Amino acid sequence: MARAIMAPASRLTSPAELCACGEQHHPGARYYVSVRESDGGKWRPVLGPFSTHAQARAHVDAVTSHVLDHYNPGGRAHWYSYGTVAMMPDYDTPGLLNGALLATTES
Q1: Among 2, 32, 41, 55, which residue carries the largest CB count within 10 Å?
Q2: Alpha-carbon distance 92 to 38, whole Å?
Q3: CA 74/CA 13 separation, integer angstroms
Q4: In tens digits, what is the pLDDT along the chain, a chain of 107 residues?
Q5: pTM of the model
């Protein structure tokens, strides 16, 4: 699974929080499910924000299935990377798939 790490703990301006995933994240980080194209180029935070990394990780399979079913030009989406990303606390843009997935996956 692809994942983006905001910065090594040594470069954070405040103490990092150790996540259950084993990584350190900036205090107050906002978490998203992310999709990266197979060529390593474009990536998007597509679902979120979530207040915990575990919440974002719990939605990776739903995003993967949705992208494969609805956004799979020529079968390319099978080669995309699906994972999570931690964003700075002030980033709160809704994920591109929030409308399609959060109503059905959050109950």
Answers
A1: 32
A2: 26
A3: 44
A4: 444 444 444 444 556 777 888 888 788 889 999 999 887 778 999 999 999 999 999 999 999 999 999 999 889 999 999 999 999 889 999 999 999 998 754 43
A5: 0.78
Q: Is the peptide bond before 15 cis (omega within 30 degrees of 0)?
A: no
d(C-alpha 7, C-alpha 105), whole Å: 30
User: What length is written for the chain?
Assistant: 107
Token pair belonging to 49: 């924000």
Q: Give the Cβ contact number of residue 50 at 10 Å.
A: 21
Which 8-state DSSP code applies to residue 16?
P
